[in-house]
Amino acid sequence: MTDLISRSASELAGMLASREISSVEVTQAHLDRIAAVDGAVHAFLHVSGESALATARRIDEQRAAGEPLHELAGVPIALKDIVVTKGVPTTAGSKILEGWLPPYDATIVERIKDAGLPILGKTNMDEFAMGSSTEHSAFGNTKNPWDLDRIPGGSGGGSAAAVAAFEAPLAIGTDTGGSIRQPGAVTGTVGVKPTYGGVSRYGLIAMASSLDQAGPVTRTVLDSALLHELVGGHDPRDSTSIDEPVPSLVDAARKGASMDLTGVRVGVVSELTGEGYQEGVSARFNESLDLLRAAGAEIIEVSCPSFRSALAAYYLIMPAEASSNLAKFDGMRFGLRVEPAEGPVTAERVMAATRGAGFGDEVKRRIILGTYALSAGYYDAYYGSAQKVRTLIQRDFEAAFGHADVLVSPTAPTTAFKFGEKLDDPLAMYLNDVATIPANLAGVPGMSLPNGLSDDGLPVGFQILAPARADDRLYLVGAALEAALEKTWGGPLLAQAPELETVR
């Protein structure tokens, strides 16, 4: 079992294709792993064992019959619990949706099912994707497999922890301000936020519609490329979906693995380095730049002055959109309904009682912020001004990409912190996403890949950003750096995780 769960998705795909192993064996091995360690990690909110094994049996039968199959057919996957899945509890980490069984599948779920990937279950998350630590889930904390006393990042800490703890070889996350990349950084996994519109948002429970984007969570760059190509592409049901083919991401990843970046210009964003970054984070970042330079890349420095205002702009735009999107959770149509304990049962009082009981403190905080920013007399001063800053950020990206093919920075300013350390200080919590937020405001793609351990023995992430619709550049540079790092380490970073031994 240990051998199967420690394999990458691409390795498992090759073994399945050659019929060296069966999908039932692979799926059962991961279900056994979940049963053994998820009591400690708590990556999953729901495990779909029977349906996952049913899919695995079907794929094994089709493969035995010689039917053509997708490359990832038979490789298990986990889904963040914000992805609507027909007949499977989907809560977005909130009591207000506890027990809801959706009547339809999100587009990415349809594509995963059509390709024959057994779905292991739904992973834990900060409520409605609002958080950087998964401490805001209504269903308890997910633990970081590297150190069970520390956060796994957020909002998609469940997906990242499941992959890091070898409970799933692949997972889907969503990224509104860093919720795929920041968990990737602190758990030693690979996380990718595709170009906005590159992966359908149909069937994602919306937090901030102009920022949300689904993407892969894996243990290798190639695995992310395989999953990204599978779920990406145009969807007419999503009005923001890009109507053009997905770039050749797998080809780019395989080319990058040769570690030849001759002619590639890598721009270091000066505003996303230096002061405020943990010493070990900066040290690993500079070492990674040396590896890129050794692979033939040209390293230059670029300045994006408006990035200094990105965090402030984001925390006006995102809550404003969230307050609008979450208005539908009113106790009237679906989900939780709470009637007032005494007095008349009116629509207003039911809504107030339901939202008061169903939403957690962080969700309430952001709804209040967003409603205030959109209110009469304040709209132009707050929301309107934030949108102007967003335009400046987009222009800074455009100018920087005139000089560099990709931009790079540390993914997060620190390694994983201990539970409770920042819970009572929202600003300190929000600063975890200072390096990831600009990409969401501009709609450009970003990747985080593990690039070593800090002095505290915890994983550090390296962020790569590319122009919109040039996601293949992430995979070219990311695979080259990954290959150079693994050559230095003598294998994958997760092999160095001491705490994983205790949860095995």
Automatic annotation (TrEMBL):
- The active site is formed by 80 (charge relay system), 155 (charge relay system), 179 (acyl-ester intermediate)
Checking InterPro entries in the record gives:
Amidase, Amidase_CS, Amidase_dom, AS_sf, GatA
Q: Which reaction does it catalyse?
A: L-glutamyl-tRNA(Gln) + L-glutamine + ATP + H2O = L-glutaminyl-tRNA(Gln) + L-glutamate + ADP + phosphate + H(+)
Q: Which UniProt keywords apply?
A: ATP-binding, Ligase, Nucleotide-binding, Protein biosynthesis, Transferase
Biological process (GO) annotations held by this record are: translation
> Which is an annotated GO molecular function term of this record?
glutaminyl-tRNA synthase (glutamine-hydrolyzing) activity
Q: Does the keyword ATP-binding apply?
A: yes
- Its name, as the record gives it, is Glutamyl-tRNA(Gln) amidotransferase subunit A
Source organism (scientific name): Sanguibacter antarcticus
